[in-house]
Amino acid sequence: MKLGFIGADHEVTGSCHYIEACGKHILVDYGMEQGRISFEHVDLPVSEAQIDYVFLTHAHIDHSGNLPLLYARGFRGKIYMTGPTADLCSIMLRDCAHIQMQEAEWRSRKGKRNKDIKQIEPLYTMEDADNTLRHIVACDYGIKIDICEGVQIRFTDIGHLLGSASIEVWLKEKNVDKKIVFSGDIGNYDQPIIKDPALTSSADYVVMESTYGDRYHGEERPDYIKELTEILNRTFARGGNVVIPSFAVGRTQEMLYFLRTIKKEHLVTAVEDFPVYVDSPMAVEATEVFTDHAMECYDEEAMELVKNHINPISFPGLNLAITTEESRAINEEDTPKVIISASGMCEAGRIRHHLKHNLWREESTILFVGYQSVGTTGRAIIDGVDEVRLFGETVDVRAEICKLTGLSGHADKGGLINWIQGFKERPKKVFIVHGEDGVCTSFANCLRDEYGYSSYAPYSGTEFDLISGQIIKEGIPKEAVKKQAKLVSDVFTRLKAAGARLTAIIARSEGMTNKDKAKFADQIIALCDKWE
After folding, report:
1. Closest Cα to residue 205, out of 340, 481, 479, 4?
2. pTM (two decimals)
3. Fold designation for 224-403
4. CB 208 within 8 A of CB 411
5. Stretch (H or E) spanning 71
């Protein structure tokens, strides 16, 4: 039995862990890297075609975004996740594929003038995303699931996002039983709409995130309604717009929850009424998914509204922009308004158009409501840059820049400690991942020095023997080289992936009849003869 660390180790993006047990190769998450990367991550220890299962904690792209790439390179196993996560992945993976294809087309078109630049291919295609979705197995919370001989899992609501979960993994091999718990992203307490994180009682080993392992959101929960109302009033009094870069899934729905209350109670006095635009087709679809899963995922406060036939995330004056024409029309009228658009870190999508129209306006406000990774446009704006590049143009930053403090889908240091202390017996070892370099180290030290846990912050490439309880290989931090986003894959890469898939099928062919094995061998030999 072996546990390997691939991605989001001393990083907050590209989450991926590897289990080798019971003759199976398993991934827990396979996320896409976003923003600036400090360290290179190692490759998967086996080919993609040899991966048997994936267990997914939640739908955010930094945990799920490379699943279609896994399929494109030969994976044909099952992907286990909760029902709400499956519905959100149906939206998010297709959207990610669309962005990949658009960006590849744009770069290829731009590079045509340079004869040295080859045709750029997307990381994966819409077909890859669609085929990936066919391998999803949707699961309920709290049900123990038999994956194969020796492997069982259970999903527990972790309160980070609709459908998000910590995953308990039971392994039994050669009369040895071990249990690993993967926290996924641990949710903040007292968030609107969704439930608080549920605790888990036992584990031999724990792999837990540490995004905010070095800070506290505050002793008291901020009054988001009051703070947001003040921002709206002073911006509208100037005649400006409030532009909110927001993650389409999760944060957008929370903002709608707050805005419904503000409009219902007539808290904004600067204007008689104000329109709210959600300019993100993915956010619109995600909002429908939230409504569909209200009964299983909403907290008591939101459910009380539902029981009174009130949609907690809808209200008069809410406008949903789907088409490009509807998006463009938003900035053609002078009425002070709220514009909620993705992406939340301002790296892609329609938000960049709204920034282009509003960043230079002193009367407007850009309101950040989520985590901004180092190296992203959003982080640069919050850190106080004077100008940004948008669509090849330099745009001055003159708008008021605000942030709703404490609003986060991640637990703070206190919430993380509360979660790990929920285990009735202390785990043998706690692995700290999914945090910036210094945060991973400091939080691991905190758990060890102040709370007595055996804690360790692995780098990518670390391997751990689950039976002996020993680290068998130390990951060596390798500084990442600055490079363009991975828009890649030439035809030779596809060919190698096909070969790896064939090898994986051969390795699993023991159950075939001798007749089928002989036929399969003849087909392979004939194919080789054709190309030799």
Report:
1. 4
2. 0.86
3. Rossmann fold (3.40.50)
4. no
5. helix 67-72
CA distances from 42 to 37, 39, 190, 476 (A): 13, 10, 37, 10
Structure-block tokens of residue 179? 């249990």
Taking the CA atoms of 294, 295, 301 and 307 in sequence, report the sign of the dihedral they define.
positive
Q: What is the CATH number of domain 2-213+409-489?
A: 3.60.15.10
Measured in degrees and rounded to the nearest 5, phi and psi for residue 3 equal -115, 125
- Four-point Cα dihedral 354, 357, 358, 360, nearest 10: 140
Tokens of 390: 């948008």
Q: Domain extents for the chain?
A: 2-213+409-489, 224-403, 496-531
E strand spans, 118-173:
136-139, 145-148, 151-157, 165-173
Q: Which two tokens stand for residue 72?
A: 């494109």
Give CA–CA dist 498/520, Å, rounded.
16
- Which tokens in the block code for residue 80? 């286990």
Based on DSSP, count helices (H) and strands (E) in the chain, helices before strands: 16, 23
- Rounded Cα gap, residues 156 and 170, in angstroms: 14
Task: Record the tokens describing residue 85, joined without a space.
Answer: 């996560």
Q: With CA atoms as reference, report the closest residue to 86 among 45, 136, 51, 160.
A: 136
Specify the amino acid at residue 522.
D
Please answer whether residues 23 and 2 qualify as being in contact, where contact means their C-beta atoms are separated by less than 8 angstroms.
no
Q: Print pLDDT tens along the chain (532 aa).
A: 999 999 999 999 899 999 999 999 999 999 998 766 778 899 999 999 999 999 999 999 999 999 999 999 999 999 999 999 999 999 999 988 887 887 777 677 666 656 555 667 788 899 999 999 999 999 999 999 999 999 999 999 999 999 999 999 999 998 999 999 999 999 998 888 999 999 999 999 999 999 999 998 876 778 899 999 999 999 999 999 999 999 888 899 999 999 999 999 999 999 989 999 999 888 999 999 999 999 999 999 999 999 999 999 999 999 999 999 999 999 998 899 999 998 888 988 899 999 999 999 999 999 999 878 778 899 999 999 999 999 889 999 999 999 987 778 899 999 999 999 999 999 999 999 999 999 999 999 999 999 999 999 999 999 999 999 999 999 988 876 544 444 444 555 566 666 766 776 777 777 778 788 778 888 887 777 777 6
CB distance 188 to 221 below 8 Å:
no
Q: DSSP E strands: which ranges in 31-122? A: 53-55, 78-82
The Cα 242–Cα 231 span in angstroms is 8
On whether the CB atoms of residues 240 and 466 are closer than 8 A, the answer is no
Give the dihedral sign, CA 188/190/195/199: positive
Selection from 10, 2, 3, 70 nearest residue 460 by Cα: 10
The secondary element (H helix, E strand) that includes residue 424 is: none
Are the C-beta atoms of 111 and 120 separated by less than 8 Å? yes
- Is residue 269 within 8 Å of residue 232, measured between CB atoms? no
